Amino acid sequence: MMHSEQPALSIVVPMYNEEESVGPLVDAVRDALNGEPSWELVLVDDGSRDSTVKIAEALAEADPRVVVLQLARNYGQTQAMQAGFDRARGRIVVSMDGDLQNDPRDIPLLVAKLEEGYDLVAGYRMRRQDKVVTRKIPSWVANRIIIWLTGVRIRDNGCSLKAYRRELLDQLHLYSDMHRFLPALAAATANARIAEVPVRHHARRFGVSKYGLSRIAKLLADLLTIKMIATFRENPLAMFGLGALASGIVAMGFLAAWLTSFVQRADPLDVVPMNAYVFPGSALLCIALAVFLTMLGLIAEEALQKVRAEDQIEQLDLARARA
Ligand code: UDP
Ligand code: MG
Protein backbone atom coordinates (compact mmCIF):
# COMPACT_ATOMS: atom_id res chain seq x y z
CA MET A 1 0.00 0.00 0.00
CA MET A 2 1.45 3.28 -1.11
CA HIS A 3 0.06 5.53 1.61
CA SER A 4 0.98 3.35 4.57
CA GLU A 5 4.69 3.70 3.80
CA GLN A 6 6.53 6.63 5.28
CA PRO A 7 7.45 9.04 2.48
CA ALA A 8 10.87 10.68 2.42
CA LEU A 9 9.44 14.08 1.64
CA SER A 10 6.25 15.89 2.65
CA ILE A 11 4.98 19.03 0.96
CA VAL A 12 2.62 21.06 3.15
CA VAL A 13 0.32 23.61 1.51
CA PRO A 14 -2.23 25.76 3.38
CA MET A 15 -5.22 26.71 1.26
CA TYR A 16 -8.00 29.17 1.88
CA ASN A 17 -10.42 29.71 -0.98
CA GLU A 18 -8.03 28.62 -3.71
CA GLU A 19 -10.42 26.56 -5.84
CA GLU A 20 -8.90 27.55 -9.17
CA SER A 21 -5.34 26.94 -8.03
CA VAL A 22 -5.68 23.45 -6.46
CA GLY A 23 -5.73 21.50 -9.71
CA PRO A 24 -2.79 23.27 -11.39
CA LEU A 25 -0.87 23.14 -8.10
CA VAL A 26 -1.20 19.37 -7.68
CA ASP A 27 -0.15 18.90 -11.32
CA ALA A 28 2.84 21.20 -10.90
CA VAL A 29 3.98 19.38 -7.73
CA ARG A 30 3.63 16.01 -9.43
CA ASP A 31 5.72 17.19 -12.40
CA ALA A 32 8.36 18.80 -10.21
CA LEU A 33 8.77 15.71 -8.00
CA ASN A 34 8.95 13.24 -10.84
CA GLY A 35 12.48 12.25 -9.94
CA GLU A 36 11.98 12.05 -6.16
CA PRO A 37 11.64 8.53 -4.75
CA SER A 38 8.74 8.96 -2.34
CA TRP A 39 6.72 11.97 -1.36
CA GLU A 40 3.32 13.10 -0.11
CA LEU A 41 1.46 16.32 -0.68
CA VAL A 42 -0.53 17.50 2.35
CA LEU A 43 -3.19 20.00 1.32
CA VAL A 44 -4.51 21.77 4.39
CA ASP A 45 -7.88 23.32 3.83
CA ASP A 46 -8.18 26.27 6.20
CA GLY A 47 -11.97 26.45 6.32
CA SER A 48 -12.47 27.43 2.67
CA ARG A 49 -15.96 28.52 1.68
CA ASP A 50 -15.57 27.72 -2.02
CA SER A 51 -15.05 24.32 -3.65
CA THR A 52 -11.36 24.00 -2.64
CA VAL A 53 -12.08 20.94 -0.46
CA LYS A 54 -14.26 19.21 -3.03
CA ILE A 55 -11.63 19.55 -5.73
CA ALA A 56 -8.78 18.61 -3.39
CA GLU A 57 -10.59 15.50 -2.22
CA ALA A 58 -11.27 14.37 -5.77
CA LEU A 59 -7.56 14.76 -6.52
CA ALA A 60 -6.61 12.84 -3.37
CA GLU A 61 -8.99 10.08 -4.40
CA ALA A 62 -7.15 9.72 -7.71
CA ASP A 63 -3.60 9.87 -6.29
CA PRO A 64 -2.77 8.27 -2.91
CA ARG A 65 0.22 10.56 -2.52
CA VAL A 66 -2.14 13.51 -2.10
CA VAL A 67 -3.62 13.94 1.38
CA VAL A 68 -6.32 16.43 2.37
CA LEU A 69 -6.53 17.80 5.88
CA GLN A 70 -9.63 19.78 6.63
CA LEU A 71 -9.74 22.33 9.43
CA ALA A 72 -13.07 23.10 11.07
CA ARG A 73 -12.92 26.82 10.37
CA ASN A 74 -10.59 29.48 9.03
CA TYR A 75 -7.78 29.47 11.61
CA GLY A 76 -5.19 31.37 9.58
CA GLN A 77 -2.16 30.44 7.52
CA THR A 78 0.18 29.78 10.47
CA GLN A 79 -2.25 27.39 12.16
CA ALA A 80 -2.95 25.64 8.88
CA MET A 81 0.79 25.16 8.35
CA GLN A 82 1.25 23.82 11.88
CA ALA A 83 -1.61 21.36 11.34
CA GLY A 84 0.07 20.23 8.13
CA PHE A 85 3.45 19.87 9.87
CA ASP A 86 1.83 17.73 12.57
CA ARG A 87 0.30 15.50 9.94
CA ALA A 88 3.35 15.31 7.62
CA ARG A 89 5.31 12.06 7.89
CA GLY A 90 8.40 12.85 5.81
CA ARG A 91 11.91 13.20 7.30
CA ILE A 92 12.04 16.38 5.25
CA VAL A 93 9.11 18.76 5.08
CA VAL A 94 8.62 21.55 2.57
CA SER A 95 6.06 24.33 2.98
CA MET A 96 4.73 26.55 0.23
CA ASP A 97 1.75 28.67 -0.74
CA GLY A 98 -1.25 27.19 -2.50
CA ASP A 99 -1.80 30.06 -4.90
CA LEU A 100 0.94 29.10 -7.40
CA GLN A 101 3.05 32.09 -6.39
CA ASN A 102 5.80 29.69 -5.30
CA ASP A 103 7.16 27.31 -7.89
CA PRO A 104 7.28 23.57 -7.04
CA ARG A 105 10.24 23.21 -9.41
CA ASP A 106 12.34 24.81 -6.68
CA ILE A 107 11.55 22.02 -4.19
CA PRO A 108 14.36 19.65 -5.30
CA LEU A 109 16.87 22.52 -5.02
CA LEU A 110 15.78 23.27 -1.47
CA VAL A 111 15.92 19.61 -0.49
CA ALA A 112 19.40 19.20 -1.99
CA LYS A 113 20.62 22.20 -0.02
CA LEU A 114 19.08 20.86 3.21
CA GLU A 115 20.92 17.60 2.71
CA GLU A 116 24.22 19.47 2.71
CA GLY A 117 23.71 19.65 6.49
CA TYR A 118 21.21 22.39 7.23
CA ASP A 119 18.09 22.25 9.40
CA LEU A 120 16.17 24.85 7.46
CA VAL A 121 16.52 26.13 3.93
CA ALA A 122 14.61 29.34 3.28
CA GLY A 123 13.79 30.49 -0.21
CA TYR A 124 14.19 34.15 -1.01
CA ARG A 125 12.17 35.63 -3.80
CA MET A 126 14.52 36.98 -6.43
CA ARG A 127 12.06 38.92 -8.54
CA ARG A 128 9.07 39.20 -6.32
CA GLN A 129 5.81 39.61 -8.21
CA ASP A 130 3.76 41.58 -5.69
CA LYS A 131 2.51 45.13 -5.24
CA VAL A 132 5.23 47.56 -4.21
CA VAL A 133 3.47 49.75 -1.66
CA THR A 134 1.30 47.23 0.18
CA ARG A 135 3.67 44.28 -0.12
CA LYS A 136 7.30 44.86 -0.94
CA ILE A 137 7.94 47.95 1.17
CA PRO A 138 6.21 46.63 4.36
CA SER A 139 8.05 43.37 3.83
CA TRP A 140 11.41 45.12 3.51
CA VAL A 141 10.77 47.08 6.72
CA ALA A 142 9.57 43.94 8.52
CA ASN A 143 12.73 42.04 7.54
CA ARG A 144 14.86 44.91 8.88
CA ILE A 145 12.95 44.90 12.20
CA ILE A 146 13.23 41.14 12.50
CA ILE A 147 16.99 41.32 11.95
CA TRP A 148 17.29 44.13 14.47
CA LEU A 149 15.21 42.36 17.15
CA THR A 150 16.46 38.82 16.70
CA GLY A 151 19.95 39.41 15.36
CA VAL A 152 19.28 36.72 12.76
CA ARG A 153 20.17 37.86 9.25
CA ILE A 154 17.52 36.36 7.00
CA ARG A 155 16.82 38.08 3.70
CA ASP A 156 13.21 37.08 3.14
CA ASN A 157 11.35 35.82 6.19
CA GLY A 158 8.01 36.08 4.43
CA CYS A 159 8.69 33.60 1.64
CA SER A 160 6.60 30.49 2.34
CA LEU A 161 8.74 28.17 0.26
CA LYS A 162 11.03 26.52 2.78
CA ALA A 163 12.42 23.10 3.61
CA TYR A 164 12.78 21.79 7.15
CA ARG A 165 14.18 18.83 8.93
CA ARG A 166 11.50 16.92 10.86
CA GLU A 167 13.53 17.25 14.08
CA LEU A 168 13.50 21.03 13.75
CA LEU A 169 9.74 21.22 13.25
CA ASP A 170 9.30 19.10 16.38
CA GLN A 171 10.90 21.93 18.33
CA LEU A 172 8.74 24.71 16.91
CA HIS A 173 5.17 25.36 17.92
CA LEU A 174 3.72 28.03 15.71
CA TYR A 175 0.81 30.23 16.67
CA SER A 176 -0.54 33.69 15.84
CA ASP A 177 1.23 34.83 12.64
CA MET A 178 4.58 33.29 13.38
CA HIS A 179 5.16 31.69 10.01
CA ARG A 180 6.24 35.18 8.95
CA PHE A 181 9.48 34.97 10.90
CA LEU A 182 9.93 31.26 11.17
CA PRO A 183 13.64 31.24 10.18
CA ALA A 184 14.49 33.87 12.76
CA LEU A 185 12.49 31.92 15.35
CA ALA A 186 14.21 28.66 14.43
CA ALA A 187 17.64 30.25 14.70
CA ALA A 188 16.91 32.04 17.95
CA THR A 189 15.10 29.27 19.84
CA ALA A 190 16.45 26.06 18.30
CA ASN A 191 19.92 27.12 17.10
CA ALA A 192 18.90 25.95 13.65
CA ARG A 193 21.47 25.93 10.87
CA ILE A 194 19.92 27.95 8.10
CA ALA A 195 20.74 28.35 4.43
CA GLU A 196 19.04 30.61 1.89
CA VAL A 197 18.54 29.88 -1.77
CA PRO A 198 17.00 32.10 -4.45
CA VAL A 199 13.60 30.89 -5.66
CA ARG A 200 11.19 31.80 -8.41
CA HIS A 201 8.10 33.84 -7.69
CA HIS A 202 5.03 34.37 -9.81
CA ALA A 203 2.17 36.82 -9.71
CA ARG A 204 -1.11 35.46 -8.37
CA ARG A 205 -3.02 33.89 -11.24
CA PHE A 206 -6.35 33.09 -9.56
CA GLY A 207 -8.27 34.37 -6.56
CA VAL A 208 -7.21 37.17 -4.24
CA SER A 209 -4.59 37.72 -1.55
CA LYS A 210 -5.92 37.00 1.94
CA TYR A 211 -4.09 39.81 3.68
CA GLY A 212 -4.27 43.58 3.99
CA LEU A 213 -2.01 45.96 5.83
CA SER A 214 -3.41 44.76 9.20
CA ARG A 215 -0.86 41.97 9.24
CA ILE A 216 1.82 44.56 10.09
CA ALA A 217 0.34 45.25 13.54
CA LYS A 218 0.07 41.54 14.25
CA LEU A 219 3.65 41.00 13.17
CA LEU A 220 4.92 43.70 15.51
CA ALA A 221 2.97 42.30 18.47
CA ASP A 222 4.29 38.79 17.73
CA LEU A 223 7.85 40.04 17.46
CA LEU A 224 7.63 41.83 20.78
CA THR A 225 6.32 38.68 22.46
CA ILE A 226 9.11 36.60 20.96
CA LYS A 227 11.72 39.14 22.00
CA MET A 228 10.43 39.18 25.58
CA ILE A 229 10.30 35.41 25.75
CA ALA A 230 13.76 35.04 24.23
CA THR A 231 15.27 37.57 26.64
CA PHE A 232 13.67 36.42 29.86
CA ARG A 233 13.59 32.73 29.13
CA GLU A 234 17.30 32.69 29.83
CA ASN A 235 16.91 34.35 33.20
CA PRO A 236 13.39 34.66 34.62
CA LEU A 237 14.63 35.39 38.10
CA ALA A 238 16.19 38.57 36.73
CA MET A 239 12.87 39.74 35.29
CA PHE A 240 10.87 39.04 38.42
CA GLY A 241 13.76 40.28 40.56
CA LEU A 242 13.65 43.60 38.72
CA GLY A 243 9.94 43.93 39.51
CA ALA A 244 10.57 42.96 43.12
CA LEU A 245 13.33 45.54 43.38
CA ALA A 246 11.11 48.31 41.98
CA SER A 247 8.35 47.33 44.38
CA GLY A 248 10.85 47.31 47.26
CA ILE A 249 12.04 50.82 46.39
CA VAL A 250 8.46 52.14 46.34
CA ALA A 251 7.91 50.47 49.73
CA MET A 252 10.98 52.29 51.11
CA GLY A 253 9.50 55.55 49.83
CA PHE A 254 6.25 54.95 51.71
CA LEU A 255 8.12 53.93 54.84
CA ALA A 256 10.24 57.09 54.63
CA ALA A 257 7.11 59.24 54.23
CA TRP A 258 5.55 57.50 57.21
CA LEU A 259 8.62 58.01 59.42
CA THR A 260 8.95 61.66 58.40
CA SER A 261 5.32 62.34 59.20
CA PHE A 262 5.82 60.57 62.52
CA VAL A 263 8.82 62.67 63.47
CA GLN A 264 7.37 65.94 62.23
CA ARG A 265 3.91 65.80 63.77
CA ALA A 266 3.17 68.77 66.10
CA ASP A 267 0.74 67.11 68.46
CA PRO A 268 1.57 63.51 69.45
CA LEU A 269 -2.11 62.68 69.82
CA ASP A 270 -3.07 64.05 66.43
CA VAL A 271 -3.65 61.14 63.99
CA VAL A 272 -3.83 62.20 60.36
CA PRO A 273 -5.37 59.26 58.39
CA MET A 274 -2.96 59.75 55.49
CA ASN A 275 0.10 59.45 57.71
CA ALA A 276 -1.24 56.85 60.11
CA TYR A 277 -2.80 54.40 57.65
CA VAL A 278 -2.10 55.10 54.01
CA PHE A 279 1.72 55.29 54.19
CA PRO A 280 2.32 52.17 56.31
CA GLY A 281 -0.49 50.29 54.52
CA SER A 282 0.97 51.03 51.08
CA ALA A 283 4.45 50.12 52.27
CA LEU A 284 3.15 46.78 53.49
CA LEU A 285 1.43 46.07 50.17
CA CYS A 286 4.58 46.87 48.23
CA ILE A 287 6.68 44.63 50.47
CA ALA A 288 4.17 41.82 49.96
CA LEU A 289 4.36 42.34 46.20
CA ALA A 290 8.16 42.21 46.27
CA VAL A 291 8.10 38.93 48.19
CA PHE A 292 5.45 37.54 45.84
CA LEU A 293 7.46 38.46 42.72
CA THR A 294 10.65 36.97 44.13
CA MET A 295 8.84 33.71 44.81
CA LEU A 296 7.35 33.69 41.29
CA GLY A 297 10.85 34.20 39.89
CA LEU A 298 12.13 31.23 41.88
CA ILE A 299 9.26 29.05 40.68
CA ALA A 300 9.85 30.11 37.04
CA GLU A 301 13.55 29.34 37.42
CA GLU A 302 12.72 25.90 38.79
CA ALA A 303 10.17 25.16 36.04
CA LEU A 304 12.61 26.24 33.34
CA GLN A 305 15.21 23.74 34.51
CA LYS A 306 12.97 21.03 33.16
CA VAL A 307 12.27 22.83 29.88
CA ARG A 308 15.99 23.39 29.37
CA ALA A 309 16.72 19.71 29.89
CA GLU A 310 14.11 18.83 27.26
CA ASP A 311 15.58 21.44 24.92
CA GLN A 312 18.98 19.85 25.26
CA ILE A 313 17.60 16.47 24.27
CA GLU A 314 15.87 18.01 21.24
CA GLN A 315 19.09 19.77 20.28
CA LEU A 316 20.87 16.43 20.36
CA ASP A 317 18.18 14.91 18.14
CA LEU A 318 18.63 17.74 15.67
CA ALA A 319 22.41 17.41 15.64
CA ARG A 320 22.11 13.66 15.10
CA ALA A 321 19.70 14.18 12.18
CA ARG A 322 22.11 16.66 10.61
CA ALA A 323 25.09 14.29 10.77
N1 UDP B 1 -4.01 31.07 3.63
C1 UDP B 1 -4.62 30.21 4.55
N2 UDP B 1 -5.40 30.74 5.52
C2 UDP B 1 -5.63 32.09 5.63
C3 UDP B 1 -4.98 32.95 4.71
C4 UDP B 1 -4.19 32.41 3.72
O1 UDP B 1 -4.44 29.00 4.47
O2 UDP B 1 -6.36 32.49 6.53
C5 UDP B 1 -3.17 30.51 2.55
C6 UDP B 1 -3.55 30.95 1.15
O3 UDP B 1 -4.59 30.15 0.62
C7 UDP B 1 -2.25 30.81 0.42
C8 UDP B 1 -1.21 31.15 1.48
O4 UDP B 1 -1.86 30.97 2.73
O5 UDP B 1 -2.05 29.48 -0.03
C9 UDP B 1 -0.68 32.57 1.33
O6 UDP B 1 -1.76 33.48 1.34
P1 UDP B 1 -1.82 34.73 0.33
O7 UDP B 1 -1.41 34.29 -1.05
O8 UDP B 1 -3.16 35.34 0.45
O9 UDP B 1 -0.73 35.70 0.94
P2 UDP B 1 0.24 36.67 0.12
O10 UDP B 1 0.99 35.83 -0.88
O11 UDP B 1 -0.65 37.65 -0.54
O12 UDP B 1 1.12 37.27 1.19
MG1 MG C 1 0.11 34.64 -2.32
Query: Helix- and strand-based class?
Result: alpha/beta
Bound compounds, each kind once, are: uridine-5'-diphosphate, magnesium ion
Would you identify the regions where 5 or more consecutive residues have pLDDT less than 50?
Answer: none
Named at the architecture level, the CATH assignment of the largest domain is Alpha-Beta Complex
How many discrete domains?
2
Whole-number radius of gyration?
27 Å
Our measurement of the CA-to-CA distance between the termini, rounded to an integer number of angstroms, reads 31 Å
CATH topology of the largest domain: Spore Coat Polysaccharide Biosynthesis Protein SpsA, Chain A
Strand order of the largest sheet: 3-2-1-4-6-5-7
| Helix coverage percent | 40-55%
Give the full name of the CATH homologous superfamily of the largest domain: Spore Coat Polysaccharide Biosynthesis Protein SpsA, Chain A
Can you walk me through this structure?
This protein has 323 residues and is α/β, with parallel strands linked by helices. It folds into 2 domains: 9-232, Alpha-Beta Complex (Spore Coat Polysaccharide Biosynthesis Protein SpsA, Chain A); 236-322. It has helices at residues 19-32, 52-62, 77-87, 107-114, 132-150, 166-169, 182-190, 215-234, 236-264, 273-322; strands at residues 9-15, 39-45, 66-70, 92-95, 120-125, 162-165, 194-199. Strands 3-2-1-4-6-5-7 form a 7-stranded mixed β-sheet, with helices on both faces. The protein is elongated. The relative contact order is 0.11. The model has no long low-confidence stretch (mean pLDDT 91). Bound molecules: uridine-5'-diphosphate and magnesium ion (MG). Magnesium ion (MG) is lined by residues 97, 99, 101, 204, 209.
